[in-house]
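Entry 14. Ran structure prediction on the chain below.
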Amino acid sequence: MTETILKIGKILIQMFFRFFFTVEYFGIENVPKSGAAVLAGNHPSYLDPILIYIILDRPVTFLAWDRLFKVPILGSIIRMFGAVPVNVYQKDSNAFEQAMKVLKEGKLLALFPEAGRSQHGYMESLKSGAARLAIYNNCPLVPITITGAYEAWPVSKLFPVPRKISVKFYEPIAIDQKEQALRRDDSEYHKEVMEQWREVINRRLIPGLKAHQLRDKLFAQPAWHIRTYEFIPVAIALLLVIWSKTEIWDLLLPPICYYLYLIADIQLIPQGRIAKVARDLSAPLLMLTWHPVLTQAVAMPEREFLSLTLTTSALLLPYYWANYYDTQRFLRGLTLSYYIAICFELLSPSAFGLHWAVSISTAVYSLYHRPLLWYCQLGLVVLYLSGLYWIFRQEFITAFIPYLLLGVVVNLYMIAVKFTAHDGREI
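Output, structure tokens:
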């Protein structure tokens, strides 16, 4: 019964972590499938033991700070997941004996040589327990690098925030049998193994932290002036004022609010990660809020009224787990396809014009750029278009050629033209 509960718990936590932290794993195959092994990683947050535990098929025993076991509910949970209490402020012979027992039984043991969460993201002074345990049991020592967790839940924050987290398992550090026989109890040998472990971890950790620091500086830079693609709504609004019979105030209110926000972002709003992300999301948000008025202005059929919301809600989902630069580039292409399709509708209203424009643009982008989970997005497009064809038959495929060409041309434009991302990077 307990094993079933643990499996269900693992799956649920994986789903939550995947959604909230967009966590990615690399090198899981480096964890031995059987036999004893010591898993040792850097320790940037409280999330670290969970990040390791939920992805492995084998049971893992953790050495955990003893005070955590005194916290109501939390103590019971970590005991259920196989944690062993350790006094991090002094030598704990009982914990060492328990760790030795775990390894002698051929199981996995996980610990964090820093013996506490990192204060600044970088690794601090190390304890040699991980090396000593691996040497005494002549078992592999598997380095683990956890990046992004410090940004998600640093020691200065009471609660975690959504940030992308990566966990990488490296090839095990094998214990040399001759060295083990000659220097088993040599503390200098223990330190040498730990330094070897530190080098493996820092090779990935330090560049990652430097990149985060650089990104934070770029986030704090002044807001960009109105960019080229942000002028498109102005052109569309002017065109519809001339061509459409819709009330001018109804037509212009959403873009007026949009440009007032852009001016406020440039002149007034303090810059940071949230401000930059909000700026990037403002264009597709305008597209969604303006959609009902635009469809009325171009005399689009009733059933087209919610098409944009229905299609983009599904098509954008894979991008939650994608590289943020891929997301920005995709959103700009989608926005451009949408507004050009609106212009097509002015010339020749079509019952399914926007369906084709959004779907084809997305499909071509997915096939060319192959972002994370691109196959899910492509599958959604095929499923969506197949469903519409099954319902509406011949009516659905009438006059789709211009929108097919539109999707291809927009993507060619996205390939040829470089864009400046929220943090100054060219994409």
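The mean pLDDT is 80. Will compare against last week's run tomorrow.
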